[in-house]
Every structure is written in structure tokens, then in C-alpha cells.
UniProtKB/TrEMBL annotation:
CDD domains per record: ASKHA_NBD_HSP70_DnaK_HscA_HscC
SUPFAM superfamilies referenced in this protein's UniProt entry, alphabetically: Actin-like ATPase domain (SSF53067), Heat shock protein 70kD (HSP70), peptide-binding domain (SSF100920)
InterPro entries: ATPase_NBD, Heat_shock_70_CS, HSP70_peptide-bd_sf, Hsp_70_fam
Naturally occurring in which organism (per UniProt): Actinorhabdospora filicis
Keywords, alphabetical: ATP-binding, Chaperone, Nucleotide-binding, Phosphoprotein, Stress response
Gene Ontology MF, one: ATP binding
Similarity comment: family membership: Belongs to the heat shock protein 70 family.
Protein name in the entry: Molecular chaperone DnaK
Length: 552
């Protein structure tokens, strides 16, 4: 095995996968050392002694120890949330870091090399707060995170290699365990470009599981006499029904019905659940994904007139449900392709990691681009054992992404009667950069003004869109913390004294905002790497997580 290995991680809501580029330049999935498969359940159990257990073993004990098991952590990324377990406190980043640690341990056992440089995938619709939290999870796990890449892009990278998709525009319908997004991607000779994206980070296969659990519970209650006992009050039973629903859902992708035998104490029943029941109970969930798909295609038509989708690619294990492909084919008149839905993202991320290493090389800046790529490819070839020509071929695909959500600044509407008595109610967000703007984005210029006479300073407050669509109301936006946002020294004068604002965002999510007072030329520059945790908190979490032995 070579000295340097590049890894791609699909850090999923319900399951996670890690892959690497082998010495012949092919993506290879690391097998789970705790099972016979390639997938690790994204579930964490904290044992009585404080030791973390990650994977199927943690998932199996969830009905017995619900207060010590955390699942669906990915849905909390980017939020200020903590879990108190056994006298310890865990953030979404630290729990995700434990999952990453287990994946890294599996990779070390398989390759004999520690996981260093890695790319982690995120849903395309994850905002910068969620992406920053994901990067921090990698840092806490001790990884050198060289990139964050949207899951549909990673899947398209893998699909392009195996299906020769060059010159095509692909709609990626990504229905994972806990998130959904739909993304249009143009695959060209030297690039993979995201044209537009949309989705919901709180919609995924687990919601189908819950609906099916409701069906099973309803049928069970109709068949047995429980007296005054309410099975929904029994947490252990409800978790067993949910686990049963997950298995039945998978079975209904292959058969028209599946038998179930739920039991509560001494009372049990056996009956069949049909695909028809399942699809009826989840029709509105599928409708929601179709609505997002339609909105994505409308955005495509608006931003890229004349561009048509050539193929539909299904990503995520939940796309195995027959209703998904059938509905998409009816809507789009294209036959969706189901290609390696569980592993494609991790494999594509590994390819992206190798390409990113080439483009991120900090070699001689005066060397022409092609020569620099060739030189870096030779250097990586020497350390990995992969042929330089193979590395160059992987690196030739530059990835161009878009901003998933809008960003703006908080302003006050002074035309609103009584605004001075209700500044909060009179405030709104002026978005300077918008969802689906290509990255890097900017600079975007806006001229603002003071709101009262002789206002000597203004506070700049940054916000990210949190709603499904861009809206100016505060409730549909999330404040972004930063070190300093105060522009002082504004000359005395009437309300409306100008302040110039310029905002840019780079490919990695570094937001820069410059506020300038034109008469004095006084300037405030805010550079925000958008995160929930600061560097000190990340380092403290890294030391703590590193000291733990993560079991599977």
C-alpha cells in the first residue's frame, strides 16, 4: 500500500461509507470491519463507562437504551444543539466526529494507513452553516479535510466515469436516509458544473419508515385487544415497530407484500403489509420531492434558458422504492437510472479528493497551469503509486458549484410607521447573494444609509436564508455570528448618511463583507468562515474525541 491515500466520505444521515483511490486509480469502498457489508450505520451509543459505540451495534441497542443512543445527527448539523448522555455533553459535530472516527478506524484496518486527507460530502441543499459544521466534524475526528463536496456532484463524478456522460445535462434526484435534494448538473469535457439545486434537509427515507410504522401500528391495534393500554406509550415497542418498518420498506421494493408480527408483552398479531398501503401512506412525501424537482427545473429554465435534462440519475438507497422511478418517469418522460445508489457518492468523493489535491497544490505560482498540474500529478504519483496519467485524467474535471442559500444583511424599514418603537418588527433581510448563484460569487454591491440623525456607528449583521425559498422576514433567515460587525466614526449628519457594502463568497464558503464609509474612507472587513463552533471549541472537542476509543 502506498504512503499517501486520498479518501472520500459519504457522511449520511442513516448510513455512512468511506472509499479511497487505489493504486490503479479506481475508487474502492472500505468494508465495515464489524459486519459483512460496506455501510456503517450513522448511529452512536454511549456505554455506561462513557465509551462510544458506532454502527449497527449502536442501532441494535437503541430499543433497550433510547436515552444513550443518538441517530439522525446529520439533521442537526449547523444548529446549536447538545445531547447530555451519561454526564457528558455532545454537539452534532462531536457525534459526527465519532462516526468519522469509526470509518477512519475501518480504513486503517483495511489499508494499514491512517486516514489523513479526506473529502466529506454534504447534501446539495446544505447551507454554509451545515457545511461548516461538517468540516469541523472532520477536524474534530483528526482528519485533514481538503474539501466539502455536494453529494450529487460526487455521484455525477462517479457516474461520468462509468457511463460516459460527457456532454450531458443530468438531473440528480438524491433521496437519502434523512435528506433530499434535486440538482441539475452539466457534465463537460473539463468540468462538472452545478446549474441549480433545491431540496429539504429534513426530508428523507426515515420519514417513509415512520409512515410505514404508523400503518403497522394501526393494523396491530385493530387486530388485538389491548384494553386501556396504549402501545404508543411503550417506547421500546415503538422503536421495535420503527425498526420493523425499515426492514419491511426494503422488502416492499422487491415484493407486493411483506409479513409482520409485532408483539407487545404477551399480545401479538401477524399480518401482511402491502406495497399499496405503503405507497398510499407516503404519497404526500413523494409529492413533496416532485414539487422540489419541478421547482428545480423552473429555476433551470429561468437561469439557463433552452437547457434540457438528458438523463435522470437516482442516488440514495431510498430511491430503490419503485414508486420513485415510476413517478419521475411519468413527470419527466425520461427513464431514471439507478446506479450504485448506496456507494456512488463515496466513490465520487474519493475521485474528487484526488483531483482536489492536484488543484490545491501550492507549488510555483509562476508555472503555467497545465505544467503545474503535470508537476503535482507526478508528485502525487510518487507518493501514491497511482500513474500520473490517471491522476491527470481524474483532475481534469473541475467542479463548479452554486450557492445553496441566500445571504444578506439586516436592515430597518424606516418608512414603516412607528418603526423606532419596534425596531425588531421593522427589520428585514436584504439579500446580497442568492441561492443558485455560481461560486465564487461577487463582489455584490449595495449602498445603505444611517437611519437616524448623527448616527455615529452602524452594526452589520449577516444572515443566511433558512426557509425553503428566499424571503426578507427575519423568521425565514438565520443570524450568522462573527467577531466584529461595527462600523464607527461615521460623520455627523442627517439620516441617510451612506455606507457602502460589498459581499463575496469563495468556493469553500469563506464569506467576505466590506463596509466602507465613503467620506472618511473608513473600512470594516468581516471575513466569516461560517461555523457554529469557533476554533477553540473545535480544538477542545478534537482533544476530547481523540482520547476516546470508538468501538463498533
Amino acid at each position: 500500500m502506498s504512503d499517501e491515500i486520498f479518501f472520500g466520505v459519504d457522511l449520511g444521515t442513516t448510513n455512512s461509507v468511506i472509499a479511497y483511490i487505489d493504486q490503479v486509480g479506481e475508487p474502492t469502498v472500505v468494508p465495515n470491519q464489524d459486519s459483512d457489508g460496506d455501510i456503517t450505520a450513522s448511529v452512536v451509543y454511549i456505554d455506561d463507562d462513557g465509551s462510544p459505540v458506532v454502527g449497527q451495534a449502536a442501532k441494535d441497542v437503541a430499543p433497550l437504551y433510547p436515552d444513550r443512543v443518538v441517530a439522525l445527527v446529520k439533521r442537526e448539523m449547523g444548529r446549536d444543539r447538545e445531547w447530555a448522555i451519561g454526564g457528558q455533553s455532545f454537539t452534532p459535530e462531536s457525534l459526527s466526529a465519532l462516526i468519522l472516527r469509526r470509518l477512519a478506524d475501518n480504513a486503517f484496518a483495511h489499508t494499514g494507513k491512517p486516514v489523513g486527507k479526506a473529502v466529506i460530502t454534504v447534501p446539495a441543499y446544505f447551507g454554509m452553516l451545515e457545511r461548516g459544521a461538517t468540516r469541523n466534524a472532520g477536524r474534530i475526528a483528526g482528519l485533514d479535510v481538503i474539501g466539502i463536496v455536494p453529494e450529487p456532484v460526487a455521484a455525477a463524478l462517479h457516474y461520468d466515469v462509468v457511463a460516459d456522460a460527457e456532454g450531458k445535462t443530468i438531473l440528480v434526484y438524491d433521496l437519502g436516509g434523512g435528506t433530499f435534494d434535486t440538482t441539475v448538473i452539466a457534465i463537460e469535457k473539463g468540468s462538472i458544473e452545478v446549474l441549480c439545486t433545491d431540496g429539504d434537509s429534513q426530508l428523507g427515507g426515515v420519514d417513509w419508515d415512520r409512515r410505514l410504522a404508523d400503518v403497522i401500528l394501526r393494523e396491530f391495534k385493530e387486530r388485538v385487544d389491548l384494553g386501556d393500554e396504549d402501545p404508543e406509550d411503550n417506547e421500546h415497542f415503538m422503536r421495535e415497530v420503527l425498526a420493523m418498518a425499515e426492514d419491511v420498506k426494503k422488502g416492499l421494493s422487491r415484493a407486493q407484500s411483506r409479513p409482520v408480527a409485532p408483539r407487545l408483552g404477551q399480545t401479538g398479531a401477524r399480518f401482511d403489509v402491502t406495497r399499496e398501503q405503503f405507497e398510499a401512506a407516503t404519497a404526500d412525501l413523494l409529492d413533496a420531492t416532485i414539487d422540489y424537482t419541478r421547482r428545480t427545473l423552473a429555476t433551470l429554465a429561468e437561469r439557463h434558458p433552452g437547457r434540457k435534462v438528458d438523463e435522470v440519475l437516482l442516488v440514495g438507497g431510498s430511491t430503490r422504492m419503485p414508486a420513485v422511478a415510476a413517478r419521475l418517469e411519468a413527470e419527466l418522460e425520461l427513464t431514471p437510472r439507478l446506479h450504485d445508489p448506496d456507494l456512488a457518492v463515496a466513490k465520487g468523493a474519493a475521485r474528487y479528493a484526488l483531483g482536489q489535491a492536484v488543484w490545491a497544490w501550492d507549488g510555483d505560482e509562476d508555472t503555467p497551469g497545465e505544467d503545474r498540474v503535470a508537476a503535482r500529478a507526478e508528485a502525487i504519483a510518487a507518493s501514491t503509486g497511482i500513474a500520473a496519467a490517471t491522476i491527470r485524467k481524474i483532475a481534469e474535471k473541475r467542479v463548479v458549484t452554486v450557492l445553496p442559500k441566500a445571504f444578506g444583511v439586516r436592515l430597518v424599514d424606516t418608512s414603516k410607521p412607528g418603526w423606532m418603537d419596534d425596531v425588531e418588527g421593522s427589520s428585514y433581510i436584504e439579500h446580497l447573494v442568492h441561492a443558485n448563484d455560481p461560486l465564487p460569487s461577487g463582489p455584490h454591491h449595495r449602498e445603505l444609509g444611517t437611519v437616524v440623525d448623527d448616527q455615529g456607528e452602524i452594526e452589520i449583521q449577516l444572515y443566511e436564508q433558512s426557509g425553503a425559498v428566499e424571503k426578507p422576514e427575519l423568521a425565514f433567515n438565520t443570524a450568522i455570528d462573527h467577531d466584529s460587525g461595527l462600523v464607527s466614526g461615521i460623520p455627523k449628519g442627517k439620516a441617510g448618511m451612506p455606507v457602502h457594502i460589498d459581499m463575496t463568497i469563495d468556493e469553500e464558503g469563506l464569506l467576505s463583507l466590506t463596509a466602507t464609509e465613503p467620506s472618511s474612507k473608513k473600512e470594516l472587513t468581516i471575513r466569516v468562515r461560517i461555523n457554529v463552533l469557533d476554533d477553540d471549541q473545535v480544538e477542545a472537542a478534537r482533544r476530547r474525541i481523540t482520547a476516546l476509543t470508538v468501538k463498533g
